[in-house]
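User: Here's a protein and a ligand (glutamine). What would the complex look like?
Assistant: Let me lay out the input and then the predicted complex.
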Amino acid sequence: MSGLGKGITAASIGRLLKNRGYRVTAVKIDPYLNIDAGTMNPAQHGEVFVLSDGGEVDLDLGNYERFLDINLKSIHNITTGKVYRNVIEKERRGDFLGATVQIIPHITDEIKRCIRRAAGEETDGGESADICLVEVGGTVGDIESMPFLEAIRQMHGELPAQDMVLVHVTLVPVDTMGDLKTKPTQHSVKALRELGLHPDIIVGRSEQVIGPQTKKKISAFCDVPPSAVISAQNMPDIYQVPMEMEKEGLAATLCDLLGLENREPDIEWYRIVSREYTSRVTVAIVSKYGIEDVYISIKEALRHAGRALSTEVNIRWLDAEAFDPQQLADMDGILVPGGFGKRGIEGKIQAIRFAREGGKPYLGLCLGFQLAVIEYARNVLGIADATSEEMGEGTHVIAILPEQEGVTELGGTMRLGDCPISLKAGTLMADLYGKTEIVERHRHRYEVNPAYIEALTDAGLIFSGTCGDRMEVCEIPAHPFFLASQFHPEFRSSPTHPSPPYLGFVGACRRNRTISRSG
Ligand code: GLN
């Protein structure tokens, strides 16, 4: 079932293997008909994660990149939409001439081709991975996931026995007496067997540790050795899941099944994710969405920076529509994230004004960058009706990107993915990165209107990063920490490589807290 932690389980398995020196990549299968996640409502499906190549994908790919320090591509997110589109395009070209095109074998063949292609793709070192994790989303028994499970079954028969391991992630609930129940696992394993799939490893997701007795029971009913039943109880920090799985002996079982040498693991990751906190800050995120999954990469990037600085970052989510600047009084920093449309923008602009005038650390991302420019235009330059073309009538200090004019299709048509950015030497942003040429990921249709750059600059707003003629970063030198970017640095942050703007922001929040507490 969804929300169980299949993504974190798969990412953690990847980490165990990576810690042993194996090259790992990952594929996420989403059984929906959308081509990609780009047009899906994040309030229903969670964040749209953006890859280097501009792919707008499921948020689980973000977990893979963060856990495994790899750069994935659009082909690593396989959807029913992509699979059917490929097959129908082939049919129209005449590739199947004479044949009746069917789910089996044509769709299942295409699924296997997509998996093999993504698995064989080069990883960062220029070589392809030793191991590819394939996460099949959806629920066993759902109509949508049937062709994918059938393709997996076929692959299992086609590959040498040691080349494929099936891991089943299952819920082990606790009943009202506090006892762990194995019945749902027995039934889901039965449902898998009816499809010709037999799990090699069972990962039990539970509120409690699954002890030896329960493991034995699962083992007996599901035909896996007790050592292949893994307890995965809820953890306060997802980055510690690999450590728990290490203790459960999962790596040894996996290596045994895959015929790999169980090398001594590198424990650097464990050291990083268990660094002690010595201070704490509270950051306000002003957003129109009630759910945190929409900004999962931002939340994680704040945590990565926090761990690196031994600072626990607590997040207070503030509703942009019912916003009162009073709520910001005891915050150590203010963050305005990306977003689309008019709803809630006035509250966000008020929050930015509060940060700018009150000397509170501010980090603006994408829409949070555009709104920082609008706030400056309104309250410093005196253009009272300054706004973005996206929001309707007014003076458009933020305007549509020229290449976006006339774009009518919404899927995959924004300015997306990696773009090179030049940072002005000596500015805050250049100091944080420690260099002047960087690459970061984008997802937007609007930009700072070139007609207002000079006036804004004359009024004291510094554009410290650019991509050609396009403004990418703004900052206010007289402010303790006021920084905003058109790009999304959170998409490249990981525990091992925390993002420089986030490190700067969390550091500034900590300084702000120390000053306001001692003052
Ligand atoms: N809506 C704005 C744009 O399209 C900002 C996008 C974002 O925040 N991701 O330019």
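Summary: The chain has two domains: 6-164+256-272, 280-518.
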